Amino acid sequence: YGREARPVLSCSIDFYIRLFVRVFDSPARAKYHASKTAVVHQCVQCESFFVQPLGEAAAPSEDVKESQKFRTARVVAPGGDCPECGGRLKLGGPFYSGPLHDSDFV
């Protein structure tokens, strides 16, 4: 609803994970959420995996004054069978696939 949660630091301590975020009220930045969200296709035999983003943020060309364009992502998954070993693929997600650390903050 017009907000962006940006991770600034993540820590793995003992048996839990802690994630620190900054929340911004920015409808324009909230549109990038789909390009930072993905699903994963993982083989049950050889454990190879393929990450499929849910959206893309197309960069505007510098020659023409355009606004940022957002669209659904192209399919990168290999289909129902693993291209490495021919095994079955399982679907996992969705999950956040963007950066987990902000180098300026750390």
TrEMBL record:
Organism of origin: Alexandrium andersonii
Is Methyltransferase among the key words of this record?
A: yes
An example of a Gene Ontology cellular component annotation for this protein is: nucleus
Recite the UniProt keywords alphabetically: Methyltransferase, RNA-binding, S-adenosyl-L-methionine, Transferase, tRNA processing, tRNA-binding
Tell me its family: Belongs to the class I-like SAM-binding methyltransferase superfamily. Trm1 family.
What's its catalytic activity? Answer: guanosine(26) in tRNA + 2 S-adenosyl-L-methionine = N(2)-dimethylguanosine(26) in tRNA + 2 S-adenosyl-L-homocysteine + 2 H(+)
Protein name, as recorded: tRNA (guanine(26)-N(2))-dimethyltransferase
Any GO molecular function: tRNA (guanine(26)-N2)-dimethyltransferase activity
Question: S-adenosyl-L-methionine: present as a keyword of the record?
Answer: yes
Entry's Pfam families?
TRM
